[in-house]
Amino acid sequence: MTEQEKEKKKYYVELEDLPGIGPATAEKLRQTGYTDFSSIAAAAPHDLAETVGLGVESAKKAIEAAKEAIDVGYETADIVYERRKTIGKITTGSKNLDDLLGGGIETQAITEAYAKFSSGKSQLGFQLCVNVTKPVEEGGLNGGVLFIDTENTFRPERLIQMANGNGEEILKRVTIARAENSDHQMILAEKASEIIEENNIRLIIVDSLTSHFRSDYIGRGALGERQQKLNKHLHVLQRLAEKYNLAIYLTNQVMDDPGMLFGDPTKPIGGHVLGHMSTYRLYLRKGKETKRIARLVDSPNLPEGEAVFKVTTEGICD
Predict the structure, then answer these.
(1) pLDDT tens digits for 249-264?
(2) What SS3 state is found at 280?
(3) How many domains does the chain contain in total?
(4) Do the domain assignments include residue 31?
(5) Contact predicate 40/66, CB 8 Å
(6) Residue 134 resides in a domain
């Protein structure tokens, strides 16, 4: 590294040191998840400009300065491998389902479950709320939960049923945020950094991810804007997962594909944007009585497969 490069790194100490970033703008950046040079260097100029009210050119200058202040991010695979050793897993309550997912719901990743109504996707979310509070040796992460509720489906009574006599303590570790529309939902995710460290959040649940986006953007003419905003929302969630080593669990709605003549016509909402951003993608469907079938549709390192589990009064089990 040259002396000039060292001087640049030394000069840019705080966000306020970046060109065009004053104290008020720096505070907005921190509130929306841009807390360090790395997050700013990786941002898209238009996203950064829109988030904090900067001009696009000013955002470009700030991004270039942030890149100068850090190592741009080249690293060898062995370093990535060491970092992945810090990943945690949250048990689902079903050994069959845990095995399908390679040990449970993974931190630093987005796990999406899509299904028709009453197929178990919200019930799995409730079970994860309980399980993440458990010690690591019991399949938890000894942490809290941020539950972003978009459909008014959160029920604390259900957690108490699943908690095996420890309901009051578990409820204290679950933070609820009720999203009123898609923009509010995005803001809740962008401001999540404020409570993640304070409440030791190790799991973020969004139930459901696409409900507000479907109702706020109707018709083909709004599809492009809807997908752009959904993409931005998912990138914010992924950044939180990686920065704080926490797990993201999303539930998703479905629709029937009228062009499907043979096989199951059920397809998830969100299109390719969500398909590419979800690290693990589960398709849940109902079996007989309390049985549910989970199919692992997509994963970067696990084979496709199916697992059978049950949804009972006491929670998820084999």
Answers:
(1) 999 999 877 666 676 7
(2) strand
(3) 2
(4) yes
(5) yes
(6) yes
